């Protein structure tokens, strides 16, 4: 217990905490409160008139198909990003785990995409899929499919998912690999003695032991897809075609900064905050559990 | 020297030309200096300026597209109406010199000009003359949509990937379509009559047109490429031989297309009307924002005066394809022989001024129009990709658009 | 070694190499594109091999020759802005977090829990979910178009505080006790013991936070209207939409390469710390 | 160089847990006191209160003549060796050892001189520039000792300083600590839960249990005359054999039917008929002739340790384990029945209820 | 249920390190062999080769009559208990124990039956549904044993299965393992570096050093007649005292001037004048009268262990440590000079150079 190690100083801790607390208060707590307040208002774009409308903004949102569509899009998008990024990473990690020669080289060559900004990744993939000149669109064309993400909703979704997941592969890979390397060798050996072959060992021993990490990554990836992929969408599909890729965060931005509908945007912020808090609590519950593991 | 912030949305070639005009003004005198800065597309520029206004960081001049007009008009505390500004700081301002069709769009009910019509455009059709020749088509654009279909099929038989593509789908294929056929886009004279307007563009004409476009998208006659003017690249690369785009597309096409092209009027449905109405204007105007000192406004007035000079106007018109907005500048252009040397360049002016505007062709003034554009874009896209029928999509767009109108009405 | 089957090893290498190719493809594309002319992107399939224009493109972008970037500032200036942003955020976050973690772990004081939870909450509220109000707060503080505005609101982070907290908790109590017996007060303990012990964590965090700061997109997009504060990442999107649909892919990709170069170099050079930092953040 | 007195010390943790009930202990100058007891009995708590790392809830604490309850650890003139050594990982051995002196403001070369002297005594001079992680467990232990020695404190405090070492090294370092403590003649309090360590190091042993002191005294006194069944069981390895018994005149009836006559034990008479626990250490069960036998042990397991042999088995008709330790020569096999005689001088009787010792 | 033969086994690791030089060992059916030796001597390597977890570089390995060099671990019919137990953390105790059987394709209820039987033997029936993390160290150890037992293998392999337990539990589990192995009469190879564990568990002991076997035999044989100085020093705690000596006629001159007459040792004559190492175990140095004394030990440190007392000291005029172990009764004080006599029957002579045993 850390109960022991205490320096007996009355004011010092407050000084130490002050910078963080001030910034938290000014840039987090205050805006969050502001968002809550604004979510009860309807304002004009310039902020000349405002009307207190109670929950109208929320009612409007939840009675709007568009909002529900956005929710659906967000979940589909996040699910796909998380799943595809994790699946590829798991495969690569499983391969890299037991490689002895060249392990560090492989690792180095696999982790750098983490450093690439989502928006940059998106722009490059967007080019590669460009229906007129993109190499991947061309490939798809040679396979008999006319790729056009400007029109085809699924294809647009595919591009933003790939661009977003691509960057996450490195992250997931690092965790899966660390997880696998933390599994005691003797466990694998025990399984070998118990008569299970390499594939069986992976699915029956290694994978279950990775499941806490997989769960952690799932949450992280979902949070990433929810909130950090704004740039991906903003730089490419702008939420389209139709409303096929308009995620919740993009919609907050669009309604707030493009539509200048402060009330609705604030209401959406409030909903998102509730969502993030829920996700974070889930994540923490889980981390607490894992500590005992 | 007074420094003035001027935010605009002119990228690419148009951006260079805009800088050129500004440089011209800066060079013409020593008292003021305009700092022009590109703020992204129309939408980004406008919303950026509003956000900046809320944060007290607004520029003196902001370029706002026609879609934002209602929003700007309703923000009385934020904008400095042009007529007042000129009244106070300029001597030579004469509203009557401006084309009525232009001032009509940007004036208050008392017909006072609220913003400066810097770059007004109207949609036209560009066609690839070399392609037309290769396909054995006449050297003119299709006059009607039916003819458009025929031409496109011929082009495709000749090996072209697509018949035509478009920029600004809502502007060209709904707003101007309605005006050209003298059909209302919204009630209350397309919104000029008051905030209690309602959208009505889900009528027979529009449904039919969109339905047809949807079919064309499937068959390749039409190729959708984006909400603003991303389609240009398909025209430049000769993937599509026809292109419905703003008259201001001229500058870019001129700079980027290494083939001969022609300009012709926007087609119409000849089985629905005999003579088409005028098209409506688009493009943008310059709004002056409040919150600056008199020196600044003096500079702004001087800048506007400079822009109104017939030579400046005419040059701008000839470089960009934007409409000349004063009678004097039209005369200057005609005198210069530009139209004769570049056949088709007068298309936009003719198309705009051919007939007397009606309530349905004067323009469109809707609150939350940027969002409504977005809604329309989405709905059209869902037709292009086959997820909805034209009727469904337009009904939906009207319904959701009306919600936006009501929200705007409530906020203002 | 159990089951040291050669074919299994071969499959492993094969899959890994394939993975590297697929993952590396985008960077290949970007590099190739940055060496070609814009004409190569008008029709046909984009170039897949290097062109001659590389030096030219980079020079034009870095100096913004002929306003290729469509803005009034050069890529080198924007990279400088990005660098400032990344550095200030990284160093600021580390400083603020290590101090607050120290307070939380090594002191007992009234409202300790409250403070802890308040910091914790920030973890839950990424900028993206509270865009408008945060923008308005920054605006009302007059911090638009300033380095302060670009950095300070992003400096408070629960993640870094948490990482340090976890690390401090993993330091045996006896170390602090030994220091107390050795006559070291709290700040002396912090300076003599805690700080030197944290260097690895600081380095690890630095990598991650540098990347975080460099890659910021939405925030600079919102709060800068003055070109002098543009960052390299945010300008790319602007290039995409400029120019009437004639997208200057070579210029965009040149900018893209410049935008990803510094963080990628940081990751590769500090790979060891980076991997540790990531994995430890989870704990 | 000081006495240490703990007078009516009590400790209640902030969560309300009473860790120490009432501790009284007078430690003489130069004496080595070992606190021993099972995990959680309050050994560390007691030590840490002396160090000043934990506040006392009640009572008075003196080092020398000074009441130190309210002094900071650094002002108490003590030095402490921790279980994990608590070396500063980023400092060299020399800086580790000198850190306390530096904080006292001593000049550099005096620090250097003192550190070198201590290092010489501990034979770690060649390691002075190394970092702790470059050292073996034993070497770290020495450095931790060095850090304590160099400050020349009034009292050494040790909290299980050897439990992170492997068995061989532990024995070796145990001797080293004993040697050093004798050399410096510094008062020392040593905490361990290992009874062998406790027995071998202590001048006086304090056996604790559940926050209370069970018995205090020189190790062999406690070994030979444990006041409670707890102390009897705690000291010695393998542990004492305990069996339920009943006193019947001048004899014990162990486990119902094994009769042990004790004609010489005069006190026995007064407890006639009483239920007791009978205790005998394995080494006090000697193999004997059939005729002399008190018990017959059926051997299950034989552990030849070289010098001695341990026999694990049970009495016929009983389940409970009995252990006997025999000197080395004879070899046994599994299943042997060995007649054993209890050393009459070395048996222990405890009240079955209070678990207090009965016989002298 | 099988013999195990290691014939000319060699192991060179992929980095070129020769871990095992030439290992020959014939293990009988039902025998418990303990491999013991210092860290890094190749014990685990040998064991893992038998398990099939490590390939042999040369030589033949037989289990029963079958050459198993090229068989997978699962095909060798062995079971192994790991130092860290290697329990599958995500499976219940029952599933852990049954996993091997499941892979053999046994029907569910037969698995259940076997698991329950093994659990009963180990007294962990009540834990069958628990996850490993819910178990104490000792319980985990039992489960690991159970997993081995349940498969009824031909050979049990243990790699330091007790070193993660604390001292008390270690003793207890040691007895348990011995009991189980005796009960199942399964051939077993047990690796440890703890000589007490080795002595007490082994039917035969294999002492290894630097990749080679030093000596093989029953524990007490090795203890009493170590073939090499290494074995002599490795077994026994505290370790044997070694002193340089020279043979002079029928006597030894130990450390120059301590004369020990050995009139009965006939062989001595043949080594006249030779330099040797003289070894005697602490327990074979008995306190005696002045007249009988071979050595006079000046006592530095006394360790009363209860049953015995250890005396650490040195001979006057010498620096090297000497340890004597005395049975418990007498009390010593520091500085005592104790006359000691070497047990003539139990002394050890080693060639000073080859370190091989000389006397019978
Ligand atoms: N900070 C604390 N808060 C509450 N209870 C505590 C605290 N520290 C120790 N305890 C409790 O006080 C009792 C005594 O603890 P202490 O550390 O003194 O035991 P110990 O005898 O040193 O045991 P060990 O041999 O395991 O070190 C234990 O029951 C422990 O759980
Ligand atoms: N995979 C390997 N590659 C190279 N050398 C190895 C490998 N495994 C072990 N060794 C070396 O082989 C020698 C014998 O190792 P082994 O594990 O058998 O020792 P051990 O006797 O079990 O020691 P310990 O008691 O420490 O477990 C050691 O020197 C070790 O460093
Ligand atoms: O391209 P522009 O400038 O003519 O503008 C086209 C439309 O009016 C935008 O709404
Ligand atoms: Mg303790
Ligand atoms: Mg080993």
TrEMBL record, chain A:
Q: Which Pfam families match?
A: BPD_transp_1
Q: Which UniProt keywords apply?
A: Cell inner membrane, Cell membrane, Membrane, Transmembrane, Transmembrane helix, Transport
The record gives the membrane topology as: Multi-pass membrane protein
Q: Which GO terms describe its biological process?
A: transmembrane transport
**GO cellular component annotations of the record:** plasma membrane
The organism's superkingdom is given as Bacteria
User: So where does this one cross the membrane?
Assistant: 12-30, 75-96, 108-128, 156-178, 205-227, 266-287
Q: What is its main location?
A: membrane
Q: How does it assemble?
A: The complex is composed of two ATP-binding proteins (UgpC), two transmembrane proteins (UgpA and UgpE) and a solute-binding protein (UgpB).
Q: Which family does it belong to?
A: Belongs to the binding-protein-dependent transport system permease family. UgpAE subfamily.
Protein name per Swiss-Prot or TrEMBL: sn-glycerol-3-phosphate transport system permease protein UgpA
TrEMBL record, chain C:
Q: Which residues cross the membrane?
A: 12-33, 83-107, 114-132, 144-164, 193-214, 247-269
- What SUPFAM superfamilies has UniProt attached to this entry? MetI-like
| UniProt keyword annotations, A-Z | Cell inner membrane, Cell membrane, Membrane, Transmembrane, Transmembrane helix, Transport
Q: Which residue numbers delimit the ABC transmembrane type-1 domain?
A: 79-270
Q: Name one GO biological process term.
A: transmembrane transport
Q: Which InterPro entries match?
A: MetI-like, MetI-like_sf
Q: What is its main location?
A: membrane
The record's PROSITE patterns line, in alphabetical order, gives:
ABC_TM1 (PS50928)
What are the subcellular locations of this protein? Cell inner membrane; Cell membrane
- Return the GO cellular component terms, semicolon-separated: plasma membrane
Query: How does the protein associate with the membrane?
Result: Multi-pass membrane protein
Q: What is the top-level taxon of the source organism?
A: Bacteria
Alphabetical list of Pfam families matching this protein: BPD_transp_1
Provide the family line. Belongs to the binding-protein-dependent transport system permease family.
Query: Which purpose does this protein serve, as stated in its record?
Result: Part of the ABC transporter complex UgpBAEC involved in sn-glycerol-3-phosphate (G3P) import. Probably responsible for the translocation of the substrate across the membrane.
Quaternary organization: The complex is composed of two ATP-binding proteins (UgpC), two transmembrane proteins (UgpA and UgpE) and a solute-binding protein (UgpB).
Protein name per Swiss-Prot or TrEMBL: sn-glycerol-3-phosphate transport system permease protein UgpE
Which organism's genome codes for this protein? Natronospirillum operosum
From TrEMBL, chains D, E:
As recorded in UniProt, coiled-coil segments are none
Signal peptide range in chain numbering: none
Listed InterPro entries: AAA+_ATPase, ABC_transporter-like_ATP-bd, ABC_transporter-like_CS, ABC_transpr_MalK-like, ABC_transpr_MalK/UgpC-like, Mo/tungstate-bd_C_term_dom, NA-bd_OB-fold, OB_MalK-like
The protein's superkingdom reads: Bacteria
Q: Which residues form the ABC transporter domain?
A: 4-235
- A Pfam family matched by this chain, by name? ABC_tran
Q: Which GO terms describe its biological process?
A: carbohydrate transport; glycerol-3-phosphate transmembrane transport; glycerophosphodiester transmembrane transport
Keywords (alphabetical) are:
ATP-binding, Cell inner membrane, Cell membrane, Membrane, Nucleotide-binding, Sugar transport, Translocase, Transport
Q: Which GO terms describe its molecular function?
A: ABC-type transporter activity; ATP binding; ATP hydrolysis activity
Gene Ontology terms, cellular component aspect?
ATP-binding cassette (ABC) transporter complex, substrate-binding subunit-containing
Instruction: Name the NCBIfam families on file.
Output: PRK11650.1
Q: Which PANTHER family match?
A: MALTODEXTRIN IMPORT ATP-BINDING PROTEIN MSMX (PTHR43875), SN-GLYCEROL-3-PHOSPHATE IMPORT ATP-BINDING PROTEIN UGPC (PTHR43875:SF12)
Q: What is this protein called?
A: sn-glycerol-3-phosphate import ATP-binding protein UgpC
């Amino acid at each position: 217990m850390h109960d022991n190690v205490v320096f007996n100083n009355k004011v010092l801790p407050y000084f130490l905490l002050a910078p963080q607390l001030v910034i938290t208060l000014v840039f987090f707590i205050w805006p969050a409160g502001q968002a809550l307040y604004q979510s009860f208002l309807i304002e004009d774009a310039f902020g000349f008139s405002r009307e207190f409308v109670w929950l109208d903004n929320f009612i409007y949102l939840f009675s709007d198909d568009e909002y529900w569509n956005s929710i659906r899009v967000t979940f589909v998008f996040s699910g796909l990003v998380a799943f595809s990024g994790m699946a590829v990473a798991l495969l690569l990690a499983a391969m890299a785990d037991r490689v002895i020669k060249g392990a560090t080289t492989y690792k180095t060559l696999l982790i750098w995409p983490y450093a690439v900004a989502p928006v940059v990744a998106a722009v490059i993939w967007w080019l590669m899929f460009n229906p007129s000149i993109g190499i991947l669109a061309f490939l798809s064309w040679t396979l008999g499919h006319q790729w056009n993400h400007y029109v085809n909703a699924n294809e647009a979704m595919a591009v933003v998912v790939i661009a977003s997941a691509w960057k996450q592969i490195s992250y997931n890979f690092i965790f899966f690999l660390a997880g696998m390397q933390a599994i005691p060798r003797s466990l694998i050996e025990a399984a070998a003695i118990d008569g299970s072959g390499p594939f069986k060992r992976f699915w029956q021993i290694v994978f279950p032991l990775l499941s806490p990490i997989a769960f952690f990554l799932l949450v992280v990836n979902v949070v990433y897809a929810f909130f950090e992929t704004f740039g991906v969408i903003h730089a490419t599909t702008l939420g389209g075609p139709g409303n096929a890729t308009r995620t919740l965060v993009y919609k907050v931005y669009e309604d707030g900064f493009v539509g200048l509908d402060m009330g609705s945007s604030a209401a959406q912020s409030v909903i998102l905050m509730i969502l993030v808090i829920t996700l974070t609590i889930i994540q923490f519950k889980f981390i607490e559990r894992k500590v005992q593991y | 020297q007074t420094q003035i912030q001027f935010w605009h949305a002119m990228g690419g070639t148009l951006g260079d030309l805009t800088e050129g005009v500004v440089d011209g003004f800066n060079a013409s005198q020593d008292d003021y200096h305009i700092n022009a800065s590109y703020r992204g597309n129309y939408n980004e520029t406008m919303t950026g300026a509003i956000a900046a206004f809320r944060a007290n960081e607004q520029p003196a001049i902001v370029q706002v597209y026609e879609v934002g007009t209602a929003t700007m008009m309703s923000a009385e505390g934020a904008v400095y109406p042009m007529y007042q500004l000129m009244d106070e700081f300029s001597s030579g301002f004469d509203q009557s010199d401006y084309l009525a069709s232009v001032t009509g769009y940007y004036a208050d009910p008392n017909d006072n000009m609220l913003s400066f019509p810097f770059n007004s455009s109207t949609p036209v059709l560009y066609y690839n003359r070399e392609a037309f020749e290769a396909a054995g088509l006449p050297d003119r654009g299709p006059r009607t949509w039916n003819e458009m279909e025929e031409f496109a099929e011929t082009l495709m038989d000749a090996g072209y990937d697509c018949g035509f593509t478009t920029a600004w789908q809502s502007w060209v294929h709904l707003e101007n379509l309605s005006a050209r056929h003298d059909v209302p886009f919204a009630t209350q004279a397309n919104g000029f009559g008051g905030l209690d307007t309602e959208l009505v563009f889900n009528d027979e004409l529009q449904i039919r047109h969109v339905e047809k476009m949807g079919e064309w998208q499937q068959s390749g006659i039409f190729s959708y490429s984006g909400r603003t003017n991303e389609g240009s690249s398909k025209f430049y690369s000769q993937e599509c031989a026809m292109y419905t785009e703003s008259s201001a597309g001229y500058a870019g096409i001129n700079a980027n297309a290494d083939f001969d092209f022609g300009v012709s009027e926007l087609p119409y449905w000849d089985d629905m009307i005999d003579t088409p109405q005028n098209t409506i204007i688009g493009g943008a105007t310059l709004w002056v924002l409040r919150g600056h000192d008199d020196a600044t406004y003096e500079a702004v007035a001087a800048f506007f005066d400079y822009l109104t000079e017939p030579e400046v106007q005419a040059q701008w018109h000839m470089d960009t394809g934007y409409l000349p907005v004063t009678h004097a500048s039209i005369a200057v252009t005609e005198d210069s022989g530009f139209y004769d040397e570049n056949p088709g360049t007068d298309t936009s002016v003719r198309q705009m001024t051919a007939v007397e505007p009606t309530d349905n062709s004067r323009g469109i003034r809707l609150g939350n129009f940027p969002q409504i554009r977005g809604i329309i874009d989405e709905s059209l896209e869902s037709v292009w990709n086959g997820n909805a029928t034209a009727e469904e999509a337009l009904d939906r767009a009207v319904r959701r658009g009306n919600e936006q109108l009501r929200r705007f009405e409530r906020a203002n | 070694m159990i089951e040291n089957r050669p074919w299994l090893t071969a499959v492993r290498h094969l899959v890994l190499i394939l993975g590297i190719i697929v993952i590396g493809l985008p960077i290949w594309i970007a590099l190739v594109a940055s060496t070609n002319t814009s004409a190569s992107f008008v029709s046909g399939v984009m170039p897949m091999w290097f062109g001659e224009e590389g030096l030219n493109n980079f020079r034009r972008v870095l100096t913004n020759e002929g306003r290729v970037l469509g803005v009034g500032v050069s890529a080198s200036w924007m990279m400088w802005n990005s660098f400032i942003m990344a550095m200030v955020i990284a160093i600021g976050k580390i400083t603020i977090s290590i101090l607050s973690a120290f307070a939380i772990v090594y002191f007992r004081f009234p409202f300790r829990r409250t403070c802890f939870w308040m910091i914790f909450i920030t973890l839950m509220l990424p900028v993206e979910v509270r865009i408008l109000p945060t923008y308005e707060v920054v605006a009302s503080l007059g911090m638009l178009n300033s380095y302060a505005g670009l950095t300070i609101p992003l400096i408070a982070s629960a993640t870094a505080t948490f990482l340090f907290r976890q690390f401090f908790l993993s330091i045996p109590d006896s170390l602090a006790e030994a220091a107390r017996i050795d006559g070291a007060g709290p700040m002396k303990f912090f300076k003599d013991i805690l700080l030197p012990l944290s260097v690895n964590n600081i380095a690890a965090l630095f990598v991650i936070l540098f990347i975080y700061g460099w890659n910021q997109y939405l925030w600079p997009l919102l709060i800068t209207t003055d070109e002098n504060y543009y960052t390299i990442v945010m300008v790319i999107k602007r290039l995409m939409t400029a120019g009437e649909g004639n997208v200057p892919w070579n210029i965009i990709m040149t900018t893209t390469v410049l935008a990803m170069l510094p963080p990628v170099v940081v990751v590769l050079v500090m790979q060891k710390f980076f991997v540790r930092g990531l994995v430890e953040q989870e704990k | 160089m000081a006495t240490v007195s703990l007078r009516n010390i009590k400790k209640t943790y902030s969560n309300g847990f009473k860790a120490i009930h009432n501790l009284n202990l007078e430690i003489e100058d130069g004496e080595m006191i070992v606190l021993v007891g099972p995990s959680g009995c309050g050994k560390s708590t007691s030590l840490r209160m002396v160090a000043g790392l934990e506040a006392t809830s009640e009572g008075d604490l003196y080092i020398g003549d000074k009441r130190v309850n309210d002094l900071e650890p650094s002002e108490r003139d003590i030095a402490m060796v921790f279980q994990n050594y608590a070396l500063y990982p980023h400092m060299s051995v020399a800086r580790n050892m000198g850190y306390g002196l530096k904080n006292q403001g001593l000049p550099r070369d005096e620090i250097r001189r003192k550190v070198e002297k201590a290092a010489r005594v501990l034979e770690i001079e060649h390691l002075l520039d190394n970092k702790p992680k470059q050292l073996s467990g034993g070497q770290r232990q020495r450095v931790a000792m060095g850090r304590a020695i160099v400050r020349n404190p009034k009292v050494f405090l040790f909290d299980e300083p050897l439990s992170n070492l492997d068995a061989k090294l532990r024995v070796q370092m145990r001797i080293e600590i004993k040697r050093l403590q004798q050399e410096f003649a510094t008062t020392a309090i040593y905490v361990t839960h290992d009874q062998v360590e406790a027995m071998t190091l202590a001048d006086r042993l304090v056996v604790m249990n559940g926050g209370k002191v069970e018995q205090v005294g020189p190790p062999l006194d406690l070994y030979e005359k444990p006041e409670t069944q707890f102390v009897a069981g705690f000291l010695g390895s393998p542990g004492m054999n305990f069996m339920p018994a009943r006193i019947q005149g001048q004899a014990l009836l162990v486990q119902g039917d094994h009769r042990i006559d004790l004609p010489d034990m005069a006190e026995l008479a007064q407890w006639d008929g009483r239920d007791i626990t009978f205790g005998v250490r394995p080494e006090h069960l000697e193999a004997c002739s059939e005729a002399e036998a008190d018990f017959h042990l059926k051997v299950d397991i034989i552990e030849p340790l070289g010098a001695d042999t341990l026999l694990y088995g049970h009495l016929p008709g009983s389940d409970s384990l009995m252990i006997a330790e025999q000197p080395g020569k004879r070899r046994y096999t599994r299943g042997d029945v060995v007649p054993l005689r209890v050393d009459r001088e070395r048996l222990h009787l405890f009240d079955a209820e209070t678990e207090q010792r009965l016989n002298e």
